[in-house]
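Structure (tokenized):
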């Protein structure tokens, strides 16, 4: 299949990290931190919700991280979970530290195409990071959408990211928000169980509903199956994939999943495109 770079991405420029300074750092959970980054010189192009940047921890390496916030003054936010060398270094970055940024890359959630209908946002764990700008956009332009439902799951209450913000969305009553955890504590007031179990409690009008899902791959599969079972067309079910992206611009092939490259054709895909691929063993 022929691969084309998006018109606004020139390969040479796309490979050069732009210097950004850490201007804010908030701990989300024991292993997850949100960094607020400000350009030192020329900024990157303003990202769209769903896109990702390649973050370079100088001297350690570079990893793909979704954009979890698009702030005023050309600041971007990234929420990083420390799982290995690079992500640990990023999580440890204090205010004033420098980070290299390449991007933004990839497809977005296509929020505009959901206007006029219902939207269901479903996140598992740190999967809420790329969906947070979607919720912001839905709240900002609330009248453009009918029912808006946000379902958030985590392994335990301590592992819920953006806890205070999710509580404020819930309290505002402008959208319906439900939270669930696999393992509850005595103080937990939300639901208990995996995220797909929340879907049966949601009113779904399949003809006008767009669903946006991000989380571990197993969660994507079970969650997509639930909403498809409720009659939503696979084209209107969108998922964000997080596989092995290395160059970010469709050159190295590390993130290939059958005929698609996650960095170039994703990370946000309609289920009609990736569902059949994920059903194949060991792809
Ligand atoms: C498009 C995209 C967006 C992403 N957005 C975010 C984000 O917003 N926040 C965030 O914390 N992470 C995100 N990731 C995952 C992140 O890129 C990896 O966690 C990171 O590359 C790990 O690099 P490392 O050097 O720290 O660890 P490594 O030493 O490379 O890996 C350490 C461990 O983490 C596992 N791992 C590596 N990559 C992934 C992955 N993609 N998913 C799950 N496990 C992985 C490895 O198998 C290994 O067990 C995203 C990935 C992609 C492709």
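Design, position by position:
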């Amino acid at each position: 299949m022929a691969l084309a770079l998006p018109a606004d991405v020139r390969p040479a420029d796309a490979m050069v990290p732009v210097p950004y300074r850490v201007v804010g750092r908030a701990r989300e959970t024991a292993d997850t931190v949100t960094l607020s980054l400000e350009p030192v010189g020329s900024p990157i192009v303003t990202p769209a919700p769903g896109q990702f940047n390649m973050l370079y921890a100088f001297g350690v390496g570079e990893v793909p991280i979704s954009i979890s916030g698009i702030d005023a003054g050309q600041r971007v936010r990234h929420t990083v979970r420390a799982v290995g060398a690079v992500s640990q270094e990023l999580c440890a970055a204090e205010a004033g530290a420098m980070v290299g940024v390449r991007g933004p890359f990839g497809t977005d959630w296509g929020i505009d195409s959901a206007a006029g209908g219902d939207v269901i946002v479903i996140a598992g764990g740190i999967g809420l990071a790329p969906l947070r700008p979607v919720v912001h956009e839905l709240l900002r332009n609330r009248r453009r959408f009918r029912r808006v439902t946000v379902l958030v799951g985590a392994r335990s209450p301590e592992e819920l990211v953006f806890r205070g913000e999710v509580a404020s969305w819930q309290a505002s009553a402008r959208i319906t928000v439900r939270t669930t955890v696999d393992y509850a504590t005595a103080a937990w007031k939300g639901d208990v169980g995996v995220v797909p179990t929340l879907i049966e409690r949601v009113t779904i009008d399949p003809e006008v509903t767009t669903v946006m899902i991000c989380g571990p791959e197993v969660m994507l599969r079970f969650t997509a199956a639930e909403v498809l079972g409720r009659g939503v067309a696979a084209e209107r079910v969108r998922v964000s994939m997080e596989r092995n992206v290395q160059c970010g611009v469709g050159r190295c092939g590390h993130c290939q999943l059958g005929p698609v490259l996650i960095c170039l054709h994703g990370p946000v895909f309609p289920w009609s495109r990736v569902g059949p691929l994920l059903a194949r063993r060991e792809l």
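Reviewer-requested clarification: The longest strand covers residues 18-29. The mean pLDDT is 93.
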